[in-house]
Amino acid sequence: MSTIKTSRIERVRQSDIVAALRTNPASLAGAAIVSVLTVVAIIGPVFVGDPQAGELANGYQSPSWSHPLGTDPLGRDVLTRLVYGARLTLGIAVAVTFIRLVIGIVVGLLAGLFGGLVDESLMRVVDFMLAFPGLVLALVVAGILGPSLRNALVALAVVGWGSYARVVRGSVLSLREKPFVDAAKLAGVSRLRLVVTHLLPNVLGPIVVLASLNLGGVLLAASGLSFLGLGAQPPTPEWGTMIGNGASEFRRAPWLINAPGVAIAIAVLGFNLLGDGLRDALDTEVGR
Question: Would you say residue 6 lies in a domain?
Answer without folding.
Answer: no
